[in-house]
Amino acid sequence: MNNNLVVIENQKLQQEITTQPRSTKRPRDYQQISLYKDVNPLDWEDWRWQIKHRIRTKEELEQVIKLTPEEEQGIKKASGRLSMAITPYWATLIDPEDPNCPLRRQAVPVAFEFAVGPHEMIDPCAEDRDSPVPHLVHRYPDRVLLLATEHCAMYCRHCTRRRLVGEHEEGSSSSRFDAAIEYLKANRKIRDVLISGGDPLLLEDEEIESLIQKVRSVSHIEFLRIGTRVPVTLPQRVTENLVTMLKKYSPIWMSVHFNHPKEITKRSKNACDMLTDAGIPLGSQTVLLKGINDRPYIMRRLMQELLKIRVRPYYIYQCDPVRGTQHFRTPVAVGINIMEKLRGHTSGYAVPTYVIDGPGGGGKIPIGPNYILSQAKGKYVLRNYKGKIYTYLE
Ligand SMILES: *Cc1c(COP(=O)(O)O)cnc(C)c1O
Ligand code: SF4
Q1: How far is 139 from 362, CA to CA, in rounded Å?
Q2: Contact in structure between 146 and 195 (CB atoms under 8 Å)
Q3: How far apart are CA 342 and CA 352, in angstroms?
Q4: 161 in ligand 1 pocket by Cβ < 6 Å?
Q5: Please, are residues 362 and 369 in contact by the beta-carbon 8 Å criterion?
Q6: Treating both helix axes as pointing N-terminal to C-terminal, what angle do 332-340 and 296-308 enclose, rounded to 10 degrees?
Q7: Which range (24-38, 103-117, 279-293, 313-327) has the least confidence?
Q8: Is 320 designated active site?
Q9: Closest ligand to Cα 140
């Protein structure tokens, strides 16, 4: 971008930030929703109750929000893999009147999901190809992804692993990870295991503990992390018992998945606090989603609000070209522009890395604004966040 343009853009950004009103609408208390008005508060706080009472049908959802024709069609078609499942907790955060509510769009299927856009694939990151044994994806030299379950608390409509996740019978025998553990033992270069899914925190505490113990028993594994969305979609799952168990296996890091400032509630903050207080550092992986968080001021607020609850923004993902997600995908320029408006304009801790997962199995590739204007022997010409030019001599 021409430097004058950068300056003008920044002036526009300042205006945008100061003139954008924050939504004053508060999420509803569950007692305000007829479907939940008689629910016992102890049940409401019980994650198993939340799972059991997830909204799975049009009839239930209609009692919480007013459906659009696109949503009615979407719900009818979304059966099997990535069927609709919305935790009552999440449902209370949805704006019942606004079809563009960011939480609603992440949870309620629409007819667009059943259209296949150009370049879209079933498994865009070629995870199945890079899977040497069941439940394991080995792409990078020193780390692996271990897919612990195919269930999640809520099914996100933009999910990259929609080919895998959803409600169905799943083998729960404790031997199902044996081949994966053997593979870890045999590959001494692997030092980092990312337990993900699906959502591993949907397993029972004992199953999670047993899996952690197995991974920890491999002597060359030095870094363990868990990828989960429950602090956002089902914060009730973060119980004292779970946290006490995880604490025993410190150090464990955790990647959570926040996409919009409205997802940061007292309840999700409380879940994050419990994890952080137990010594588990939290990072957020955010997916750039059209109409949800594709405005610089929204993304900036999300990143700043995350810091306030001690979650470090880790990645912003370009929405993968997975089948049925075209209505969520923005041009790459939108993401680059967002990064332009984060770096320098706010705390460095609030600036994650924007990545594209290289289609076909390239792994995460960082992209962002270009700050090097020219490069010659011993001389770099750089621009800063305001578009001013500086020369660095080597
Ligand atoms: C994202 C990912 C990882 C972890 O990557 P980091 O950049 O270390 O967070 C590992 N394996 C696979 C297959 C992944 O997609
Ligand atoms: S929680 Fe993660 S794996 Fe599960 S549906 Fe959402 S994006 Fe997909």
Answers
A1: 8
A2: yes
A3: 9
A4: no
A5: no
A6: 60
A7: 24-38
A8: yes
A9: 1
Tokens of 56: 């799975």
Mean pLDDT of the chain: 93
Measured CA to CA in angstroms, residue 96 lies from 61, 66, 294 at distances of 10, 6, 22
Q: What is the DSSP string of 86-106?
A: B-HHHHHHS-SS-TT-HHHHH
Compute the distance between CA of residue 337 and CA of residue 296 in angstroms, rounded to an integer: 8
Q: What is the mean pLDDT of residues 111-127?
A: 93
Alpha carbon distance 243, 254 (integer Å): 12
> 3-class DSSP state for residue 268?
helix
Q: Is 364 annotated in the active site?
A: yes
Instruction: Kindly report the number of other CB atoms within 10 A of residue 300's CB atom.
Output: 21
Stated as kind and residue range, the H or E segment containing 60 is: helix 58-62
pLDDT tier for residue 154 given thresholds of 50, 70 and 90:
very high
* CB atoms inside a 10 Å sphere around CB 204: 11
Domain locations along the chain: 23-365
CATH number for 23-365: choose from 3.40.50.410, 3.30.590.20, 3.20.20.70, 3.20.20.510: 3.20.20.70
Cα–Cα distances in angstroms (integers) from residue 11 to residues 81, 300, 303, in the given order: 46, 16, 21
Q: Which two tokens stand for residue 205?
A: 């505490």
| Spatial CA neighbour of 47 closest among 198, 204, 172 | 204
Is residue 125 part of the annotated active site? The answer reads: no
- Considering Cα of 329, then 291, then 305, then 259, what sign does the dihedral take? negative
In order of 156, 160, 218, the CA distances from 292 in angstroms are 13, 17, 41
Q: What are the tens digits of pLDDT across the range 10-19? A: 555 555 544 4
Atom of ligand 1 nearest to the CA of 138: 13
Instruction: Tell me if 234 CB under 6 Å of ligand 2.
Output: no
Q: Which two tokens stand for residue 271?
A: 């879940």
What's 192's DSSP letter? E
Give 334-358 as a DSSP string.
HHHHHHHTTBTTB-GGG--EEEEEE
Both structure tokens of 17:
């930030």
Instruction: Please count the other Cβ atoms lying within 10 Å of the Cβ belonging to residue 225.
Output: 19
Catalytic annotation present for 140? yes
Name the residue of 145, 146, 152 whose CB sits within 8 Å of the most ligand 2 atoms, as the mutation to test its pocket.
152
- The predicted pLDDT at position 11 comes to 53
